[in-house]
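Journal club side-thread
Mid-discussion, someone asked how the predicted structure for our own chain would compare to the paper's figures. Pasting it here so we can look after the session.
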Amino acid sequence: MALWDKPVVNRLSDNRLQLRHGPIELIIEAFGSQTEVDAAYQQAVNSFATVLEDLAGELNELRKQTNANAHLFKGDIAKQMVKVAESFAHRHFITPMIAVAGAVADHVLHYMVMDRNLSRAYVNNGGDIALFLNDKESFNIGVCANPHTGAIVSQAKITEDSDVRGIATSGWRGRSHSLGIADSVTVLARNSAIADAAATLIANAIDLPNHPMIKRATATELSPDSDLGNRLVTVDVGTISPAESKTALNLGQKLAQSLIESKQITSVYGSLNDEVFSLYPSLQPTALYKAPSQSNFDNVQKEQASA
């Protein structure tokens, strides 16, 4: 799709909204009276109209290693991406692109709920999810250990009085390149952009450098314009032992724990080859726990469009 084509808007049969433009696809749902939902969806459409164009206009700079130049960017999404990247940049190589999907979800949600009387709403951008909750409302979120199988192994109940308004999942099987070998890392944070960046960094940290069963390629071999340049990204993970899986997971868990202690994120669930870890503050209402049934979850993470 050419950059100047108009975004595609679809109202799905289950009353969700699908917005597509170039590589971006959002699945959106709002809860409230039909009049309020209709108005919220129109606001989402309006806010999405120039997202791709605005990002494309600043893409070259957004692909560069982050520095304290957020004031040089024009778009609200670009500014949030830079701000989030800067918050992690003191100990990692990072570009603002690490938060792009989450920042887009946050942006559209912000304008969708503005001046609307809704009970709940979400914007799902390929698994990076921004949430809105009104008084006494909640979402039950399924946590997937392996995107390849789709198995839901844990759940997070996100309540109105928690700080969590963003969810993101990352891993080497996902749509973006990963430096690590995690099957899945799910992060809960105060917005989707922060969760997006943190999930990527933790998934990158779950690794076994120089392991003969892990196939890698330079990012630019796979995507010539990748912001990761010539860094090696994972393209396949062969057989590794349970002990090796635990060793790799421990590296990600150490980083995840430090991000929780610094209050950058709230909760983390990581998995690799049926080995897992979960971290969350003991008194948070977002505690992860064994899921009794996949049917208990809200529709937040359903990305497929059923028109």
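Post-session note: Confidence is low (pLDDT under 50) at residues 282-292.
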